[in-house]
Amino acid sequence: MSPGEVRLLARLAALDLPPEQGTLLGDAEVLELAREMSAILGHVRALSALDLAGVEPTSHGMPLPTALRDDVAGERLAREKALAAAPQPVDDGFAVPKVVE
Fold it and tell me: Per-residue confidence at 64, pLDDT binned at 50, 70, 90?
């Protein structure tokens, strides 16, 4: 990647000032970013060359157990016990502040 391409990307990403206002990125920073981005693009090219035919898409490299439990009906909490912790029960439910006009 050339320094000119780095400066253009910096402007497009709003990381740098428009050309008429000068620049926030110094020449050394631009050269370093060009070197780093070229290396990253080289890695992407190497990955693009891999034959992935038959490889199933996945969000993880290995199966992960679910953190959720099975949805199984259990013992119900008695209404009186649930409402006992309410600061201001109303009839057979919880009183909450009005949030919609």
Answer: confident
The SS3 of residue 1 is coil
Cα–Cα dist 52/11, whole Å? 35
Number of domains in the chain: 1
Has residue 24 been placed in a domain? yes
Do residues 94 and 83 make contact, with C-beta atoms less than 8 angstroms apart? yes
Decide if 25 contacts 7 (C-beta within 8 A): yes
Q: Does the pTM of the predicted model rise above 0.70? A: no
Provide the domain limits for residue 35: 3-48
Q: CA 82, 88, 89, 93: dihedral to nearest 10 degrees? A: -80
Using DSSP, state whether 3 is helix, strand or coil.
helix
Question: Rounded distance, CA 57 to CA 55, Å?
Answer: 6
